[in-house]
């Protein structure tokens, strides 16, 4: 198992111990940070409805424990319709946008009480692919160079900072039995202060 895979496995294990709403909040924090990637992709390619996804994310921050939240099926269909076709659009940027959609879907699943598959890897996917592309000019190093790249990846400052941030989020949502409105505001502020952009990932 590669180092990043061990990190992801550890986060998945911690999420498995949390109540579903806390898992939803974890992925909602991820979605908040990834949203600018979808927005940039959408503007560049004149495709997708960033406003729709923005509205869903905003609603989840304020209504995640509300009985009035729309059904998972209704919202999931809208989110999945925004998944970019990586065969049609630039693979790197489309992958960034896909990670946002997957994070929103995972958040919706958790808030709806549905089982959430092991989707944490998609939170790290934009960083991994951006580093791979910057280092090799390709989105995949291939099997021959995989071991060397994975060791390089885990030691980059970008990945170290991301792992540290996600570990702090896990600790934050694990501490109280029920997050307060104030705590959620702090978490959202932290997500906004650490949001991604294509420039940040590719510089």
Describe the structure.
With 203 residues, the chain is mostly helical. It has one domain: Up-down Bundle (YP_001051499.1 fold like). It has 10 helices and no strands. Helix 1 runs parallel beside helix 8 and helix 4 runs antiparallel to helix 5. The longest helix has 26 residues. The radius of gyration is 17 Å and the shape is globular.
Query: How many strand segments?
Result: 0
* Gross geometry: globular
- Classified in CATH, the superfamily is YP_001051499.1 domain like
If you average the pLDDT, what whole number results?
A: 91
Features:
203 residues; mainly alpha; YP_001051499.1 fold like
Summarize the topology.
Layout (H helix, E strand, L loop, with lengths): L2 H14 L3 H26 L4 H14 L8 H9 L10 H21 L9 H16 L5 H13 L2 H18 L6 H13 L4 H5 L1
Helix pairs in contact: 1-8, 2-3, 2-5, 2-8, 2-9, 3-5, 4-5, 5-6
Give a concise summary.
The protein is mostly helical. It has helices at residues 3-16, 20-45, 50-63, 72-80, 91-111, 121-136, 142-154, 157-174, 181-193, 198-202. It has one domain: YP_001051499.1 domain like (YP_001051499.1 fold like), CATH 1.20.1590.
């Amino acid at each position: 198992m590669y180092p990043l895979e061990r990190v992801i496995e550890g986060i998945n294990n911690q999420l498995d111990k949390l109540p579903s709403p806390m898992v939803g909040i974890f992925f909602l924090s991820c979605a908040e940070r990834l949203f600018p990637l979808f927005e940039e992709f959408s503007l560049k390619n004149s495709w997708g409805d960033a406003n729709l996804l923005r509205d869903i994310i905003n609603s989840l921050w304020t209504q995640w424990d509300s009985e009035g939240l729309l059904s998972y099926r209704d919202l999931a269909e809208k989110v999945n319709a925004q998944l970019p076709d990586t065969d049609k659009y630039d693979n790197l940027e489309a992958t960034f946008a896909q990670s946002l959609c997957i994070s929103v879907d995972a958040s919706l699943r958790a808030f709806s009480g549905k089982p959430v598959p092991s989707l944490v890897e998609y939170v790290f996917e934009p960083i991994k692919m951006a580093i791979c592309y910057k280092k090799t000019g390709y989105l995949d190093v291939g099997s021959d160079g995989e071991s060397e790249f994975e060791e390089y990846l885990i030691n980059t400052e970008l990945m170290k900072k991301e792992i540290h941030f996600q570990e702090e989020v896990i600790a934050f949502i694990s501490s109280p039995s029920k997050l307060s409105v104030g705590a959620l505001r702090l978490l959202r502020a932290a997500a906004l202060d650490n949001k991604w952009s294509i420039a940040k990932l590719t510089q």
